[in-house]
Amino acid sequence: MTMGYFQDKVVFVTGGSRGMGFAIAKKFAENGAKTAICARDADSLQRAEYELRKISPQIIAFPADIADARSVKYGIEQINAAFGPIDILVNNAGIYRPGKIMDTSLSEWENQLAINLKGPFLVTQAVAPQMMERRSGRIIFISSMLAIVSLPGNACYTATKWGLEGFIGCIAQELCEYGIVVHTIRPGMTDTSIFDEIGKPDMEIDWIDPAEIANTVDFLCRLPAHAQVPEITYTNTFQRFNY
């Protein structure tokens, strides 16, 4: 059994089958956590579970649509039955589909809102009562540089992340009286499989490794509960954004 800093902690990472989510789950598993992941794609989820079980037997992987309340409820029930109440929640799942506003269909708009905004709301609302009851817990949201930067061709995705950060700011204040700590990480351009699907932008970028974001999550989760680090903007020195 893997021993480590997060021994006996129960961690739930949404979108944990690949990219940043998998890197985060792997980091927790390496440090002894009881780690649960979910994703919509069954094949990538199975591959991720196989790799994580090489590190630790204390792994749960289940298919879930975080934009569906019943799916979220069922998944959390599985985690609780196997591991107990959740100590750390990482709201990582999200989709990125760039496009100019006149080229964005209503269905695409609604899909990105569902995954990037409704999903974190449903998962947080389902997990938070466990933390409130124990007056302890940590919730980390993986946001984006586009929550603070407006770039043409990204209106839909940017709107979801601006909305997400408004949500985060409110719940951080609502939950702090219960001893629950909330953090936001805003990664810059990160080398994940999303860009295998849509193609990488035609520009020279020094890409961020997903492991760097996993290390940032690890850092935050080792802080004492009284430490105030509400947000971290993590971008490469050689990535340029217009503020």
Structure, described:
With 243 residues, the chain is α/β, with parallel strands linked by helices. It has a single domain, classed as Rossmann fold (3-Layer(aba) Sandwich), CATH 3.40.50. It has 7 helices and 7 strands; from the N terminus they run E-H-E-H-E-H-E-H-E-H-E-H-H-E. Helix 4 links the parallel strand 4 (88-91) and strand 5 (137-142). Helix 1 packs across helix 7. The longest helix is centred in the middle third of the chain and has 29 residues, at 106-134. The termini are far apart.
Tell me the CATH architecture.
3-Layer(aba) Sandwich
- Report the top-level CATH class: Alpha Beta
Helix count from the secondary structure assignment: 7
Distance between the termini: 47 Å
Biggest sheet statistics: 7 strands, parallel
Major beta sheet, strand line-up? 3-2-1-4-5-6-7
CATH topology-level name: Rossmann fold
Derived from helix and strand composition plus strand pairing, the structural class reads: alpha/beta
Secondary structure elements and pairings:
Blueprint lengths: L9 E5 L4 H12 L3 E6 L2 H12 L5 E5 L5 H15 L4 E4 L14 H29 L2 E6 L12 H21 L4 E8 L6 H5 L11 H12 L9 E4 L9
Helix pairs in contact: 1-7, 3-4, 4-5
Essential attributes:
seven-stranded parallel β-sheet; Rossmann fold; alpha/beta; 243 residues
